[in-house]
Amino acid sequence: MKLQGKRALITGGAKRVGRMIAKTLAERGVNLILHYNTSRTEVLAAQKELSTAFGVSVSIFQADLKNVRTLEQKTKKLVRDSGPIHILVNNASSFYSTPFGTITETDWDSLMNSNLKGPFFLTQIVGQSMAKSGGGKIVNIGDWSALRPYKDYLPYSIAKAGVIALTQILAKTLAPKVTVNCVSPGAVLLPENFSSKIKREIIKKTPLGRMGTPEDIARGVLFFLEGTDFATGSNLIVDGGQLIR
Ligand SMILES: NC(=O)c1ccc[n+]([C@@H]2O[C@H](COP(=O)([O-])OP(=O)(O)OC[C@H]3O[C@@H](n4cnc5c(N)ncnc54)[C@H](OP(=O)(O)O)[C@@H]3O)[C@@H](O)[C@H]2O)c1
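Above: query sequence and NAP SMILES. Below: predicted holo structure tokens.
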């Protein structure tokens, strides 16, 4: 798909990996809708930076993925007001340790809703509108740990496994007008509370001998957007070889 002049909604686009995906699309002339939840200062900075640097239009969209009723209302309004959305990148996620034996229903609901349920309800609205208009492309951001789950991240890993299933089901449902694919990162940007010892251990277990970068993930997204129009239901693992180790 030619990207120049298209419009993309990127969830969790204010910082980290989402912001790099936004920059990569802006560089190609894509107009952006940057979704955020709490990072208002960062999203406003990203809006200013990307619109100034690349001359694209950048609007912002606040919604908590955990609150489905409000999310649906806001997304319907967005779809009505924004004009056609050609690209959706479901990047937003929450991630924290939940050792077995300590998991509460609140943890379960929070991790499932932010990683799977909310993204589904948002995609249902955006995907239907894409299918009714000229078509589009959806890229979900998964995690290599959906295929080799982390022990202390049970609800998160199950939710990300659900993201892969969701990718396949939506790919069937929305074909032929809309493609739906997944990019599954390995370790890219660790949470701030991870020690440098954990980082060294991860690198030791990664055949390519380094952490990934946000650019590595953005290039994976770009592959599904402009590299091919003949992939749907795919899961591209961008993990430096961690899964095959
Ligand atoms: N970083 C890695 O090493 C790594 C590894 C494997 C997979 N991944 C996947 O790659 C993607 C990006 O990773 P990341 O580390 O950049 O993500 P992140 O910083 O953990 O989260 C991205 C954004 O998600 C938004 N978010 C969280 N809970 C939300 C909610 N309830 N409603 C709406 N938005 C919510 C937050 O927005 P606000 O800040 O605006 O609240 C946050 O900035 C994620 O899907 C992640 O699972 C990352």
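The CA atoms of residues 19 and 89 lie 11 Å apart.
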